[in-house]
Request: fold
Amino acid sequence: MRRLMLSALLLMSAALAMRGGEPADTCGCESAGKAYWVKQLFRNGFHINDSTVCYPRFPRFALKVYNWGDRTFNRYDPAYVVGTGKNWKLTAKTQNWIESTNMLFPESRELAMHSSVYSDAGISLSFMAVSLGWTWNMNKLFNQPSSRKTFDFSFTTSRFSIAINQLSSSGGMIITNFGDYNDGRRLRYHFDDVDFQSTTAQAYWFFNNYRYSQAAAYSWSRYQLRSAGSALAGFQYNEQKLSMDFSRLPADMLPYLPLESPAYDSHYRSYNLMGGYAFNWVLYPRRWLVNIFATGSVGYREVLGDRGEERHSIKSLLSNTVQTNIAGVYNHRALFVALTMNFYGIFNYNSRYTHFDAYGRLTGVAGVRF
Reply:
């Protein structure tokens, strides 16, 4: 997403030029039509720094701003990282993810559940940072309807990365542990009276940004030529909502519910400082790459709603998260294939139990650059 600003400015400039809002700049193109520069970009494969392109005044200004930002925030040691030389990507992706929630009580009692595997597939066409894509809910194709929504945004430069992730789901959970019910052993009970909502935003800085490239492993717009890693640090924001209603469980299960009430609602925000390390292991330059990315965070948790017993608990003020990503990338000329595993976990505490929410995702990608 590192070129989003430039692409947006150029598209807006094209619209202005077609409406007559900007005259051509004095670059030897005075007789060219108002939108001639757009045609030139199509002809040259969108090589934006081609000196023969007759940019009007505003697009030329936007290009200068972009080039300054690129020099400032996307500089690498060419012995370690280089660009792919391509602006376009056509990508096919399949994604499978699962969520879980666990409450750990004294005397080894546990209330645990997880979702079924959610599956999505999609395709996208990207130019620099601008993408157009389509995604299909694969569970519906196999008569496994589920209610869930996801949203992902990322902006990555050599120096820093920003990511926003949202997910929500309703029903579709499977209870695997229910206090002392079934003598505390595992079970499998389908549970639909549950709603999850989660929003995470994080921004972090790469300290070894001249030699390590996050984009080589996760957006496939760079080649990592030599193995390198980087410590990182930043800030993280979380908002979580969880609602569960156990009142409709079978009569023989309800007496074993470790919670004080069959209706459980949790709503909180947390503000965390995060730190970690990322490493790109180059098995074969421009061909094979493995990435490991791990962070942890600690911060302040703000309890919302009517949960007064948590609001006044010292332990409830503490927030912890852990995150691990593993990626494997194979490049062959213009083609690339990637497999990414993501794990994100959130710890919450109070005087009665420890609550751990986790989200796991497995993503496969195949694409071509041109």
